[in-house]
């Protein structure tokens, strides 16, 4: 949207008493998101070709040749398009356009340099979100001076207490800025920030308001230090500074973290609201009709105090809420009822365990295959899972050890209370069950000076964990050099270490994944180890559904095509990913063939 078009749009909005837009970027984006295409058509939007999608034959062997041909066919291209030869030409163009930036009829935030040769573009290929043959050279962000009026603290879903700058409103790059996040108290300390300071503000990437620096010579005499509240501004619970625990080779190093947290958990209204918003979200329990404002009402009215309370809501309670009538109330009750049979992966993700995203939740569900095992799993056992490190493993273990979390989960699964029935639970995955060895366990204990090689030597020498624990010094020396033998003996002389090792081994036995266990012969998933890519639009299912079906067969679904891609599913509108798959000679299925593939593996569509 041009600057002139933006001004006309805002003028027309004022005439009809409508809301004005902050800048052309927001106005253009808002216009494209309209459900009514007539509204979009009425807006002063402009289009400028900058590339092509799928073609049956090359138009030109250069990028600029493609654009010039598009122009001959009557399509608009940029008047500022230029062919630059060499880095110096690129820099001169960047400086020139930067000097003329404010006189252009539209807003820009930088220059894009592209490789001109189409053959070179194909050779360079794509990353997940952008081509390797193009790069943006941004202009420095526009900066303004303003006054820091105060610092307030917001509480997020995990209890993180985040400082937010309240600023004297100032216009930055066409947008009025009154607030800016300060991230954490380490950032406040780095800036040397005090309330009352004059600060330099910019919009990072021309979007996110950011405090860049303090102007110390303008600091007033009555400037105040920024103090972290001792008690949560929402619930009054104590606020504690997080601790970072680094674990390696039998040692734990504790240092102070940058984040402060409210310890009130779900007793804190802010954490409760955010936790429930996450719990009902589309990729979690997927309860349609429970928007943020509805959840805020339910919490504020004390109708819900945990995710479990959602399943106890009555029609009479919902219809009294703002924005609800008879039909919408019944629909919400039905949506809550329909969410009672989630997959194990969705349920784990919905719980909001710190550092456990959607993919980690799927790994936990696929490998351990029961909530009971996930709840019981010790951190060292969890680290046998792909992409789960010790810190994340401790977060998972700590979450399920928390008595409040246990109460909420028990209520959700209780037939007398909420009655959730988790799907896709069963036997431990064959790959996970076969992942353990004695050498691997000894390595995971982080004995000082003992790495994977030395751990395997101990396993070969003593065969059992008990044998290693009880081995005397002379036996130990037959397997390892003196320093390592001494470290192992001292490690297991500590009763806590020995008991911890035996507890881990016992859990491996209980789970049926001990190296001496009789491993059940479970047929491996047919697509385990294969990477698939979905591109284009599918008509019989969404890409999210297609991804879930592939993952149920053990496949990994990636966002970009590479030589390691096993197969590409291409629906209508497939573009660069399909082109790259064709260049690499990869297997490509259309939607009909993909449905047939799923049917072959008894996966319903």
Summarize the structure.
With 605 residues, this protein is an alpha+beta fold. Helices cover 41% and strands 16% of the residues.
Largest sheet: 7 strands, antiparallel
CATH topology of the largest domain: Dna Ligase, domain 1
Question: Tally the helices: what do you get?
Answer: 27
- Return the structural class: alpha+beta
Q: How would you describe this protein?
A:
Helix 25 (543-552) links the parallel strand 12 and strand 13 (556-558). The protein is built from 27 helices and 15 strands. With 605 residues, it is α+β, with helices and mostly antiparallel strands. It has 7 domains: 1-46, no CATH class; 50-139, Dna Ligase, domain 1 (2-Layer Sandwich), CATH 3.30.1490; 143-225, Beta Barrel (OB fold (Dihydrolipoamide Acetyltransferase, E2P)), CATH 2.40.50.140; 266-338, 5' to 3' exonuclease, C-terminal subdomain (DNA polymerase, domain 1, Orthogonal Bundle), CATH 1.10.150.20; 344-426, Orthogonal Bundle (DNA polymerase, domain 1), CATH 1.10.150; 431-511, DNA polymerase, domain 1 (Orthogonal Bundle); 531-600, 3-Layer(aba) Sandwich (Rossmann fold), CATH 3.40.50.10190. Helix 12 (344-350) crosses helix 13 (358-368). Strands 3, 4, 5, 7, 8, 10 and 11 form a 7-stranded antiparallel sheet that branches. Strands 13-12-14-15 form a 4-stranded parallel sheet, sandwiched between helices.
């Amino acid at each position: 949207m041009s600057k002139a078009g933006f001004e006309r749009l805002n003028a027309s909005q004022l005439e009809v008493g409508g809301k004005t837009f902050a800048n052309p970027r927001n106005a253009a984006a808002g216009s494209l998101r309209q459900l009514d295409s007539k509204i979009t058509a009425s807006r002063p939007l402009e289009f400028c070709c900058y590339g092509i999608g799928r073609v049956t034959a090359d138009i030109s062997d250069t990028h600029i040749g493609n654009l010039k041909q598009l122009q001959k066919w009557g399509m608009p291209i940029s008047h500022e398009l230029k062919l630059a030869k060499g880095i110096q030409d690129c820099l001169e163009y960047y400086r020139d356009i930067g000097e003329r930036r404010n006189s252009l009829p539209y807003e820009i935030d930088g220059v894009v340099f592209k490789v001109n040769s189409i053959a070179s573009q194909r050779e360079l290929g794509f990353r997940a979100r952008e081509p390797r043959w193009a790069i943006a050279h941004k202009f420095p962000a526009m900066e303004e001076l303003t006054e820091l009026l105060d610092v307030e603290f917001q509480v997020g879903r995990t209890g993180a207490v985040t400082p937010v700058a309240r600023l004297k409103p100032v216009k930055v790059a066409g947008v009025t800025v009154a607030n800016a996040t300060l991230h954490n108290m380490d950032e406040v300390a780095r800036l040397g920030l005090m309330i009352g300071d004059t600060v330099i503000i910019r919009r990072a990437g021309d979007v996110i308001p950011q405090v860049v620096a303090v102007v110390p010579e303008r600091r007033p005499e009555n400037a105040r230090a920024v103090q972290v509240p001792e008690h949560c501004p929402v619930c009054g619970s104590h606020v504690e500074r997080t601790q970072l625990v680094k674990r390696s080779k039998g040692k734990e190093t504790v240092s102070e973290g940058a984040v402060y947290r409210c310890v009130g958990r779900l007793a804190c209204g802010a954490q409760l609201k955010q936790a429930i918003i996450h719990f009902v979200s589309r990729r979690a329990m997927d309860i349609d009709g429970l928007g943020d404002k509805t959840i805020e009402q339910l919490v504020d009215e004390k109708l819900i105090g945990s995710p479990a309370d959602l399943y106890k809501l009555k029609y009479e309670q919902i219809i009294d809420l703002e924005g609800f009538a008879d039909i919408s109330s019944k629909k919400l009750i039905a949506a809550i009822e329909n969410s009672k049979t989630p997959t194990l992966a969705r349920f784990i993700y919905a719980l909001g365990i710190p550092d456990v995203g959607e993919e980690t939740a799927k790994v936990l569900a696929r490998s351990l295959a029961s909530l009971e095992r996930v709840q019981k799993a010790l951190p060292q056992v969890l680290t046998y899972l792909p992409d789960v490190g010790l810190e994340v493993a401790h977060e998972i273990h700590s979450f399920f050890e928390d008595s409040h979390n246990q109460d909420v989960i028990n209520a959700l699964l209780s037939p007398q209370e909420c009655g959730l029935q988790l799907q896709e639970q069963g036997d431990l995955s064959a790959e996970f069950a076969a992942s353990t060895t004695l050498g691997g366990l000894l390595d995971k204990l982080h004995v000082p000076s003992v790495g994977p090689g030395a751990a395997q030597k101990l396993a070969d020498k003593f065969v059992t964990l008990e044998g290693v624990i009880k081995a005397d010094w002379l036996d130990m020396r037959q397997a390892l050099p003196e320093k390592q033998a001494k470290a192992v003996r001292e490690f297991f002389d500590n009763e806590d270490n020995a008991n911890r090792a035996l507890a881990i081994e016992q859990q491996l036995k209980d789970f049926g994944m001990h190296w001496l266990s009789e491993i059940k012969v479970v047929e491996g998933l047919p697509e385990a180890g294969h990477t698939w890519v979905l591109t284009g639009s599918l008509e019989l299912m969404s890409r999210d559904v297609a991804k879930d079906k592939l993952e149920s067969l053990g496949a990994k679904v990636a966002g970009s095509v590479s030589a390691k891609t096993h197969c590409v599913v291409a629906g209508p509108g497939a573009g660069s990913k399909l082109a790259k798959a064709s260049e690499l000679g990869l297997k490509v299925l259309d939607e009909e063939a993909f449905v047939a593939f799923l049917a072959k593996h008894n996966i319903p569509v």
